[in-house]
Amino acid sequence: MPQNYFKLIKDAFPEPVFRLIIQAGELAHGMSYGLYLVGGVVRDLLLDRKSDDIDIMVEGDAIKLADLLAQLPNTRITSYRKFGTSTLKVDDFRIDLATCRRETYSRPGALPSVKSGDITEDLFRRDFTINAMSLCINPGKFGELIDIYNGKQDLEKKLIRVLHSESFTDDATRIMRAIRYEQRLNFKLETKTEKLIARDLDMLDSISGDRLRKEISLWFSELQPEKILHRADELAVLQKLQTGLHWNDHFNETFSRVRKQAKPASAVQLYYCLLVYSLNESELDELLGRLNIHGGKLDNLCRLTLKLKNKLALLDEKEIKRADIYYLLKDFSPPAIRANALCTGSHRIRTYLELYLDNLRFTKTLLNGRDMARMGVPEGRLVGIVLQDVLKAKLNGEVKTKMDEERLARSIIRKLSDPGMHQ
Ligand code: ATP
């Protein structure tokens, strides 16, 4: 593992970012503030992994320092005075500045009460040894590693280890974070940490739905969330979220298909659908309630996914017409259909679902309301009825050109206006 941390920092970032780090260190020094790179960025530097987010902790007033940094050319800074934090953007990098703090927990799962502190106290509040290292960036001490909890050794041994035995009691979201880092980095939970997870699993009950949902979304933002779900099942973390949630052997294949088919933002939604697919409706209700998902896109999507799952048998017909497929699916959102296409075990049903997604749902008649008026159909319900019948015929391949559609429309209009029809 590299020892020359100055060079490590210099080589890891583009020149403007490195320059800003140096300038921030100099300004902080002038204010007698200690300044440190902390957490994930140090971990990733030592692992030679790329990280786009840089956390800098200030032994002093972070906002005052940010105000000075804002005067440098080409720096965009947003300060959140209420929270005492500032965010800088340089190139694609996001640099967060905050004041070092000391945290105490009044009860398990509560958000901590916070006081300003020094870097040692700040490192003590962190989740795992590998995330509890800092690199000083003040002149004279630039590149000095502070590693009170032997995080560097754990990086070498590839271990996820908590700093103390009450860590999960203080904040059980760390259980979910531990699994995420373990799987992302291909590490192992250190033996005692794994035992503490088993001991403190019930502490997850003390975590709010919003915080749990945020951690699940972080799982789903990883490169291979299915590995995390597998491990979460093994450690009974999934069942703690909802007793019906389980690892499914098909996840390996379905999750990787999602990555191929969907953009990252829609992938997260699809992952949720795949996760809930095996639940029944009351289990889904319970899970959505637990995660404080009420109304909104994700709620709707998960519910539609299960609703469609319960209707799939209607598609299991060899001779089904394309228009029937269309009308069965048209009120379901495409991601709910996609989720079902990924999860169904029936080749025939999958083919029909994909036919709808790739083709049928885009089908439109060439005739429109203006054509109807031209053909003498008065504005109103009749226009919709005629166009819908034309669409059905088009879906079934019975009409192709605009002339075909017009001929069919005229015959429908004739039939509808034939008084004999209404007897
Ligand atoms: P990545 O962004 O790569 O997942 P990160 O380490 O930057 O990793 P963040 O969630 O941005 O992760 O958190 C920044 C740092 O804050 C972490 O490295 C860790 O030291 C600390 N941290 C975050 N969440 C917690 C928590 N729940 N308990 C204790 N420390 C935490």
Describe the 3D structure.
The strands form three sheets. The protein has a seven-stranded mixed β-sheet with strand order 3-4-5-2-1-8-9. A two-stranded antiparallel sheet has the order 6-7. By secondary structure, it is of the alpha+beta class. β6 (101-104) and β7 (113-116) form a beta hairpin. The protein folds into three domains: 1-153, 2-Layer Sandwich (Beta Polymerase, domain 2); 243-363, Methane Monooxygenase Hydroxylase, Chain G, domain 1; 369-422, no CATH class. The longest helix is centred in the N-terminal third of the chain and has 16 residues, at 15-30. The protein is built from 22 helices and eleven strands. It starts with a helix and ends in a 6-residue tail after the last helix. The protein has helices at residues 5-12, 15-30, 40-47, 62-69, 119-124, 151-157, 167-170, 173-185, 191-200, 209-220, 225-234, 237-241, 251-261, 264-276, 281-290, 296-309, 322-329, 334-343, 347-358, 369-374, 381-395, 402-417, and strands at 34-38, 53-59, 76-80, 85-90, 93-99, 101-104, 113-116, 134-136, 145-146, 159-160, 188-189.
